[in-house]
Amino acid sequence: MRLIHSFVLAFVLVGFGFTLDPAPKRIISLAPSLTETLFSLGLGDRVVGVTRYCDYPEEAKNCTQLGGILDPNLELILALKPDLVVLLTAHKDLETRLKKVGLRTLSTPHQSLEDIHRTIELVGKACHAQKEAEALLEDLANRRTAIKKLRSTNPTPNILVVLGRDADTNSFEGMYLAGGKGFYHELIELAGANNAWNEPGVSFPKLSAEGLLSLNPDGIIELVSRFDTKRTEEKVLESWQTFAALDAVRQKHIAIIAGDHALRPGPRYILFLEELAHVLTKWEN
Prior knowledge:
Layout: H1 2-15, E1 27-29, H2 32-40, E2 47-50, E3 64-65, H3 74-79, E4 84-88, H4 92-100, E5 105-108, H5 113-126, H6 130-151, E6 158-164, E7 175-177, H7 183-190, E8 194-195, E9 206-207, H8 209-215, E10 219-224, H9 233-239, H10 247-250, E11 254-258, H11 269-284
Parallel strand pairs: 1-2, 1-4, 2-3, 4-5, 6-8, 6-10, 10-11
Antiparallel strand pairs: 6-7, 7-9
Helix pairs in contact: 5-6, 6-11
């Protein structure tokens, strides 16, 4: 009976112009955030290829490495015979090349929180894991609600989130910030703070030391990759003492969040949001 129902459903969908793609069994991911999404949806056993930067979860390291995010090895991709290649909207040229050789692709957005949630939906649908996608999205929504309740009665300080600066000299010239556009800006507001750099339209502005002094934020969060061995938490915190005139330095409102979960537009953004809310609450107590 189920077989008959499936056949009838397929016939009706085709009649209305829809086609049913089979669930992919050999998936290639071309971004760390996408790899994390696939594993979060329980699809890790189907992932056969990833980039060299896809190191989470630990099981992802067992997959064949295909090069970088911007320079994947096309020959190796073809050799793995994938039935789905998941990539970013920024991979337009690569997607065109993959389609020309007959590979099925899924292009996903990655600029905002809505994009991250949309990507979870798209991957879930393409891989026949809609229930898992719905469960993940519900968990993320519940945790965002909990943070909103935690922070709803607190003041809203002006903070800066520093995404990167010179690792060799630990210099403050050429700092890259979370700007007034993109998912970092959204996370700052969800955590109950204001973005000290609130000019719209720029996702990752570059700021000089003089610009930092003029902004004079109430608090500063610096994100450090775990691969950045030259900049330990102690060294980074010590380097901020250069700016003794800053309110954030005088009040000891400088915090380091280490780990690549804070640097990737994937489902683990919720961990960064929870850490950010915790830091803000700690500063206020």
